[in-house]
Amino acid sequence: MKSIILIFSFLLLNYGVSVMAQQKVWTLEDCINYALEQNIQVRKSQLNTESSTYSAEQAQAQRFPSLNASVNQSFNWNRDITEGGFDGTSGSSYSVNSGATIFNGFRLSNQIKQSVMDVESSKLSTETTKESVSLNILNAYLVVLYAEEQVNNSKQQVTSTEEQLRLAGERHTLEAISQSDYLRVNSQLASEKLTLANAESQLAISRVSLMQLMELPVDDNFAISHPDLELTLNQERDPEVQAVYEKALEIKPQIKNAEINKQSALLDEKIAKASFLPVLSASAGLSTRFSDAGTTNYFDQLDNGL
Q1: Mind listing the pLDDT tens digit for each residue in 188-212?
Q2: Which end of the chain is more exposed for a tag (fewer CB within 10 A), N or C?
């Protein structure tokens, strides 16, 4: 009996959680945050930023000298004509090589600077994409609010006209109005019901459009909150055009990204000009070998062949 009660309580709890999830009311902030997490373009832009970061690390790593090591083992067999059969030897060789670029016309330095700019440019591109997605969500959110307002107004109008039709029916029964007046009110009610149906259809389309922009599966229980627009809207009705323009230049990621791309293009020119200059590099190598055909032992051969 206790097991049955526990199972029933668990199912009831899950049902309550499911109902609460279905009855979630989405605020504008919720819609934007969810869209930024799910949007394919935003995620792709973030991956591009990670790729640019790795490229910058690779560019900086080119400052370090290279280091290569190799080990070779060889076997040789020769036919012995005088005694018959085969005679074989084996040998080993070891080598270590290192090299570094000392001067290449500041090509490497400019490439490192450019890679750092590419990372910053990728970050700004991500911010631009997020801004675009946020504005699209905001516009779709406002469209849904407007569509809901249209539905509410249409419902109120239908209710009012239904009351007028009821009164017109009573007056027509008392022969206080003509048949044509009664039919005119009836026709008006039919027209307003059509308007309501169109408003409800437009609301459904607007809700689906918002969910698609959010990358959210279409849900009939999807609902948004109704913010207080008087508190949300900027009360400064007449801002100065020049002030708005200057503020946009300061904060818009598109403007910052364009400036960085310009500087990166100038570095491209310097990197290309570096090809005219000579390259100065240094390298060093260390090697030794051993052969069993030698007359000394293994370590002596390695030491003597160094």
Answers
A1: 999 999 999 999 999 999 999 999 9
A2: N
